[in-house]
Every structure is written in C-alpha cells, then in structure tokens.
Amino acid sequence: MMHAAKDSIDLGIICGDIHASLHFYHDLLGLAKAGVNEASTGTMHRLRFGTSDVKLIDPTHRPGAGPVGIDQQLGFRYLTFVVTNLDEVIQRLEAEHIPFTRPKTVIRPGTTIAMVKDPDGNIVEFVERG
C-alpha cells in the first residue's frame, strides 16, 4: 500500500509546441512556474496548481500525435482543475478564442463544468462546486 508524501498527484504532458503549451497553462490558466530542468525525455517545465505539478515536457524526440478526444482511446484522457471562479476562466479562454469541447454545463445540482483542448488536443476540464 502506498503512503502519500503530498495530497496531490503530478501529471506529465509531452508537448508538440512548448511555447503554445506554456502560453496556455501559464499565461491563460495562471499556473505558477515552479522550475525547469532536464529530464531523460527532454526539458521539463514544472507548473504548479495548488500542490499538484503539471510537467510540460519539450521532448528531445517528438513523437506523433495520437487520437484526440475523451472516447478515442484507452488510458488517461483528460485533466481536471477544480476552481472557484469558473465564469472568469471561461471568459479568459473565450477572449483568447479557445473553443470549448463542452460549454459551461450543470452536470448535477451544485456542480458545473466546462471543457477545452490544450494546444496538443488534450482535454482540459474545469469544475466548480458550490
């Protein structure tokens, strides 16, 4: 059985265009820069959200893109950010002409979501509860 060293998990994303990904996750979503270091797969840019790190990797060898969409293949399919300011996030993304794969939707009383694609086509979900 594992014993958690922190109350969150980290996620690595192999990026097709590191500048577009940094713009999306840091400039638009506001994830804080937590460091840059060389990794076995390329240069890793760590961005922090709460206690979680989103590790954007500029790969040494760029693989081809896989299928896009939640229901297009097995495995990890989307990343969720639980926020307290969903309307503000939506307005910021709309101002940048980021298309929504799922517009703001109440999925059950007290829970609202919206989804977009990041620059590599990964689905990013925003959830607000309250």
TrEMBL record:
<dbReference type="GO" id="GO:0046491">
    <property type="term" value="P:L-methylmalonyl-CoA metabolic process"/>
</dbReference>
<keyword id="KW-0479">Metal-binding</keyword>
<protein>
    <submittedName>
        <fullName>VOC family protein</fullName>
    </submittedName>
</protein>
<dbReference type="InterPro" id="IPR004360">
    <property type="entry name" value="Glyas_Fos-R_dOase_dom"/>
</dbReference>
<dbReference type="GO" id="GO:0004493">
    <property type="term" value="F:methylmalonyl-CoA epimerase activity"/>
</dbReference>
<dbReference type="GO" id="GO:0046872">
    <property type="term" value="F:metal ion binding"/>
</dbReference>
<dbReference type="InterPro" id="IPR051785">
    <property type="entry name" value="MMCE/EMCE_epimerase"/>
</dbReference>
<dbReference type="InterPro" id="IPR037523">
    <property type="entry name" value="VOC_core"/>
</dbReference>
<dbReference type="InterPro" id="IPR029068">
    <property type="entry name" value="Glyas_Bleomycin-R_OHBP_Dase"/>
</dbReference>
<dbReference type="Pfam" id="PF00903">
    <property type="entry name" value="Glyoxalase"/>
</dbReference>
<feature type="domain" description="VOC">
    <location>
        <begin position="5"/>
        <end position="129"/>
    </location>
</feature>
